[in-house]
Design goal:
This protein is of the alpha+beta class and 121 residues long. 49% of the residues lie in helices and 15% in strands. The mean pLDDT is 89. Keywords: Membrane, Transmembrane, Transmembrane helix.
Length: 121
Amino acid sequence: MEARKFLIFIFMIINLFGFGYKIHIYPNNIDLDYTFDKKFEVIIIEADTLYEYNLLTNQPYSKAAIYDPEKNIIIAEPFYVLKRLNIFRKTLIHELYHYYLTNFYEMNYQYQEIYIKELGF
């Protein structure tokens, strides 16, 4: 847990001097009105702009968020964009499932996509 706090501190320092993104920790400061059967915390980085999202992820704007298994974090487009498109909750739950299935069940990414889509996310 200390390593996670240190990582958050480092992200905050980088955030002050490099990018304008915001750091959130699920479930502490994001309420999605959804529960998983195991408790966990995930760092979610909210990009400040769509351009910044593209710089952080090398993903097109059509991919609203990604789970990065190497860093074990989720990077999302600005929340106001996701909310305006009415995909905020669905997108974050989808990415949280990637975290959940990777860390607790070691499920292959292809099977994760099938499973998550079957759940409606």
